[in-house]
Amino acid sequence: MSTPHSSDAPRAVTVDPGTPLLSVENLEVAFRTQDGFVPAVRGVSFDIYPGETMAIVGESGSGKSTTAQAIIKLLPGSGQITGGAVRFEGRDLTKLGRSEIEDVRGKLIGMVPQDPMNSLNPVHRIGFQVEETILANGQADGRRAARKRAIQVLQEAGLADADKRLRQFPHEFSGGMRQRVLIGIGLSSDPKLLIADEPTSALDVTVQKRILDHLETLTAERNTAVLFITHDLGLAAERAENLVVMHRGRIVESGPALEILQNPQHPYTQRLVSAAPSLASQRIQAAVTGSADPLAGKLQDTTGTVDLASIAHTEAVVAPPVIEFRDVTKVYKLRGSGFRSTDFTAVDRMSFQVPKGSTMAIVGESGSGKSTAAKMLLRLETKTSGSILVNGQDTDELSRRDLQALRRQMQPVFQDPYGSLDPLHNIGNTVAEPLRVHGVGDAASRRARVLEVLDQVALPASVADRYPNELSGGQRQRVAIARALALKPEIVVLDEAVSALDVLVQAQVLNLLAELQSELDLTYLFITHDLAVVRVIADHVCVMEKGRVVEQGTVDDIFANPQQEYTDRLLQAIPGASITLGGR
Amino acid sequence: MSDKLPVRRMAHYVADADEGGLGAVDAVRVSERKSNLWLDAWRDLRGRWMFWVAGVFVLFLVVVAMFPSLFAPVDPFSCQLSDSNAGPREGHPFGFNFQGCDVYSRVVHGTSTSLSVGLIVTLIIAVMGIVIGAFAGFFGGWIDSLLMRIGDMFFAIPYVLAAVVIMSMFLQNRNIFVVSLAIGFFGWPATARILRAEILRVRSSDYVMASEALGVSRVRTMFTHVLPNSIAPVIVLSTVGLAAAITAEATLSFLGVGLPPEFISWGNDIALAQNRLRTDPMPLIWPSIALSLTVLSFIMLGETVRDALDPKARALR
Description:
The complex is a heterodimer of chains A (584) and B (317). Chain A is an alpha/beta fold. Helices cover 36% and strands 24% of the residues of chain A.
């Protein structure tokens, strides 16, 4: 075998695996740009044997998707395979012509695309799209046979009422159902290899788990080999036997999944493993030291601080919670047919309290109303009923001027680090904007404050006169945090603030948030869909389902002992949660 | 975990520690050059030869329009019927037209008419389009519907027809402003529509929401964040529209409803020369060439600006 890293490997524990199904040898891919060829994949080699599940893990820009695209020669326009070979059952796919590779795609190698929302043509019925694939792969001759097979495919993919579903359009399907259709299409011709590129990253965790379970059953039945492309180390370890970790176009580590997770060798993999929130089990410590949590009622007995702690305790009980929601409800009017409108309750009698210096996480799947709650606190949405109290004051009773003062104390950080900064304003102006708006200081003192907060979020002063598009996602999110901190607020509302970031950058930002909290005694309202992130950043958690709070309490209690079936399901769905790591 | 027994044991391979380039994850790298939309566009424009050719030619036209006597010392109005349709001779490189006027001089002096009409029309369209589009996009609701329906009505009227009607209302005092108004008054819906669409796009972006959550007023958000980020397509449309306005003036003048004969205009001269096209085509061809070159250079300028402002077009090059 010409794979360099497996030449001295102990092969075949129980069964002789024979020859590999897919063998990628020294693959090189480059993209053509104005400055010549830029390499994206550099000397990547791995084998996949029949029936095996392999995962390629990496951050964005690591070349994991490019590798998958190169295997079936679906590289985007400016991409080119510049070296190496992709052998599939002995045939070098890189040497095949257009029509030959089209025979391989679909028939021998199936593909499940990343984004179920955009991967089905919205103007064609589901049935047409499934039948099209079946006919193209020669799975049936004639429309009638194709229809029969299509029903079968959708049934296997786990859709009830498959024959009715065929007549529906993609917009009538939820994300999970669409992904089932796509998996069905991918597996319809019994391919020997299925490439799944981030197949569930756009879906809610519980849906993700069900889909992946189903995919596992289907591929196990057919002995289909699966190549997973994912950014989630926990998910990869849970679903694949072997892992390939890629970083900047190279393989940094590969081998059995559990072994890599429990004993990562390469410094990059080590950091990736320790940064993955799904694999962590503890709150980031920086915050806990500064702010013991009075409502949790179980202060840790650190030596000699008993008196201080009890004083802090009594004080905290007297002081009102920084944020309090009392029966807050938000009803949207949805336009129905004609002039009638129907009510949609996005948030239903939500109540919670957040003590000073702590983090409250609101968790839920998409459509649970968690973001609406944050927007009502920020007064970007008006509530229908109930009251929101900040520092014990009802926000409805505030005058215009007091409201402006309230805005100073309450600053937001939004999800998309690429969208939340105005591309035409330089970083210095962006961070100074809240200061200008609230008329704080003169130009010189504002400039000084800008440099101070940039320093707090670990950005160099030189960033101040740069523009957002020069910064990476993590850096932009730090700028957004700096902007939120400029006015020295008490409360920071973080709406999915780390969801769009790569694992390592996410860990950096979470650490930064924890440090800032203990340094500045900040109160966080943290909106997220990711329970794994909740564990590392929050003290309290509020689990929402369909606008209602189904369970709330301290993070430790809820994670250790969920009372509601829904919460339990969410916790079970965290990929990699069951994997125990050495040294923890 | 899967219950399947691994069919084989994959070797645990570890790359050399330095291969990953781990430092890059932590380092804050700031590129050498500052960059934002406008700086990038300028950098991109600088590298295009088409921009320089069109730009220099437009600049040349502006100089000609401002100081025509520098280029054509002969008075375009001192015409001698004895020179009617005479061929080129020294000092009169393009010959004479039917009235015995110097064609070269008339072409040079006609530049300022065309350019002024182009600029004024563009200004009218841009101002009306931006104001109406911004109102529609910013307020939304019934204001938006009303303004856009009015725009649709204006769209539905062929502009030549509309301009002919307007011009015939001003038979007595036609001048450059009246012609510009007649052309520009019906041109704003396209600009308004594009700006409105851009404003709607920008308004839903996170940075606008962030700005509102920070306590910035809606009007101020509109001027500091929304408008500056929506204006690029309007600029592109205006540069291309300038060429269209110059053509429109020539068309109206050719049809006899544009500028009166006291004004030297390429459109007027082309109309005048067409009667004797078969026997003496040159008085028609010269102003036509001037018109084509001017329109072409503005279109080229518009195209390069569009490509420079559109990052997608830039990447494809």
